[in-house]
Amino acid sequence: MTEIRLENVSYAYGQERILEDINLQVTSGEVVSILGPSGVGKTTLFNLIAGILEVQSGKIVLDGEENPKGRVSYMLQKDLLLEHKTVLGNIILPLLIQKVDKAESIARADEILATFQLTTVRDKYPHELSGGMRQRVALLRTYLFGDKLFLLDEAFSALDEMTKMELHAWYLEIHKQLQLTALIITHSIEEALNLSDRIYILKNRPGQIVSEIKLDWSEDEDKEVQKIAYKRQILAELGLDK
Question: Where are the transmembrane segments (predicted)?
Fold first, then answer.
């Protein structure tokens, strides 16, 4: 089932065209990345999908509903954890906002903490956590808003490479276990290759989808060798292979 579908979506700020004729889709259970340099409209595109910006031209369909608002879980690069609240206090906020009883909110949070491998930090404060652990907490809080359509906007980009690799493996495990569907913004080719089933290349001004790459990993060939081939293809699409 197609969870996210964009048809001929264009957007402008005043006279400045930001996006032009964007067509893409994400099916249930997929991780799809939008890869491109800064300034091509990636965050504007996410704000349109999330309903933060009004659709000016074209169509956005989420889970069968056209141009809906608030139907996605949106996570940014900055974790936005409240420093004066514990991990538990942070992650129950979405449930309290939804008017769930506090005792029930805590019970539900405790149940999911184990899935996210966060039980040991339940009563810690954000300043006591590593960057990678903070992002895990932020992702859990995002999940508890209740939407299984995830938009991840450079969510792992502030982390060091070792932490990022660890978090990628952790996220894919969680994604599969909870049957999520995710659209990811990234400027990292390595991250797109590590996480994605498919990659859309966004470039130019106004931003346009210039290519779609389906990742098909062969068990008969070394994965790092295959990565090099995909990287060359992506660099060529971005015009950076000179």
Answer: none
